[in-house]
Write a structure and sequence with these properties.
alpha/beta, six-stranded parallel beta sheet, elongated
Length: 371
């Protein structure tokens, strides 16, 4: 029975690939306390730091992605790949997993490939509307592919193993009052509130556009701002907004996103898949500025999928100016009906049971093996 109680998760490099895997692993562990849950990653990825903090064993393999414009470095990629496949084969024989789960990024490629070669049940969870290269390559070989967007089905020839279940996200308690949430950021409990964030490193284009137009925004409206500026820009943003402290809370990052979401009337953000999953689960209207350098421009594809549903407005970064951003914010704050319709559209696009549904699927294919 040992084989049926061991599970392997592979996905990392960035938080966008890693945190869905953690959410799934935690849910699986809650259901099956005696199961062994292992992660596979690399020393260079975020998983090397984050996974030990969550108490899961991490197995390191040697693998790297193909580098753009670095031809000489790419010459060694086939040899590194062969070595990583050998490492994965040894790991599979030792752990004998019931299911191997991949959540994207180059680290999941050799793990999933070797699992299919060894006839171990496999499952992919894809975050983005434009599926990553690993997902597109391995989808015909794995048992199930869980997608986050209906539109993603267009990129696959084999469709019988595709399921649209959304992105696993952490639970956010939205039951508290917005007024109390705003007070937690030392802001007026009654003023309309804009939440701005761009990830752990921030988003300089968003920070610059907002900073250059923020005085006019506050003069033309009753708005106040919760602003996560990121590590790179936080000090500058705090200095530049010092005189507006009564209406702007700014810091490098927000530790309590649930409270920030409760406080917000409108959100300004990038369009990473997990960000959009959180915004829809929380039912928040948003102004999205996709990161133009994201692989295959997937953030724009993500954002447009939400815009088509009426849940968001999209500003391409090359069209982002202080005036354009300010006008979008002012329009939404002044129109309660539009915000309400966008919030309803966001909730309609959400998959609040994504984590549970995908873990159901993991357990199902594990039972299939037992039978």
């Amino acid at each position: 029975m040992a084989a049926q109680e061991t599970y392997i998760f592979a996905g990392g490099g960035t938080g966008g690939h890693l945190y869905p895997a953690i959410a799934l692993a935690q849910e699986l562990k809650n259901r099956r306390p005696h199961a062994e849950v292992h992660f596979v990653g690399t020393r260079r990825g975020i998983e090397h730091r984050v996974i030990p903090e969550h108490g899961f064993p991490l197995h390191l393999i040697t693998v790297r992605g193909v580098a753009r414009r670095l031809f000489l470095r790419n010459l060694v990629v086939p040899f590194v790949l062969l070595w990583s496949l050998a490492q994965c084969a040894v790991l599979m024989r030792r752990l004998r997993p019931a299911v191997v789960v991949g959540t994207g990024g180059y680290v999941s490629g050799p793990v999933l490939w070797m699992a299919t070669v060894m006839r171990i049940p496999t499952l992919i969870q894809e975050q983005n509307s434009y599926p990553g290269a690993t997902t597109r390559l391995l989808a015909p070989r794995v048992d199930r592919v869980h997608l986050s967007f209906e539109e993603s089905k267009l990129y696959f020839k084999k469709t019988e193993n595709l399921l649209v279940t959304g992105n696993p996200v952490r639970h956010f308690d939205m039951s508290g009052s917005p007024a109390t949430a705003r007070q937690a950021f030392h802001l007026d409990p009654e003023r309309p509130t804009v939440l701005v964030f761009g990830g752990s490193q921030g988003a300089r284009a968003i920070n610059t556009a907002l900073l250059d137009g923020v005085k006019e925004l506050l003069q033309l409206s009753d708005a106040q701002i919760i602003w996560s500026a990121g590590n790179l820009d936080a000090d500058l943003m705090e200095r530049q907004t010092q005189s507006m402290r009564q209406r702007i809370w700014t810091h490098a990052f927000i530790r309590d996103m649930a409270t920030a979401y409760r406080a917000a009337d409108v959100v300004v953000a990038r369009a990473g898949a997990l960000t959009l999953a959180e915004l829809t689960v929380c039912g928040l209207p948003s102004i999205l500025i996709p990161l133009p350098t994201a692989a295959a421009n997937h953030q724009m594809t993500n954002a447009q999928a939400l815009q088509v549903k009426g849940a968001a407005r999209v500003i391409p970064q090359n069209e982002l100016t202080p005036e354009v951003l300010r006008e979008h914010i002012l329009q939404l704050l002044a129109d309660d009906t539009t915000r309400q319709l966008m919030a309803e559209a966001a909730r309609d696009a959400a998959f609040p049971q994504a984590t549970e549904d995908i873990v159901d699927s993991i357990e199902h294919i594990a039972r299939t093996l037992e039978e």
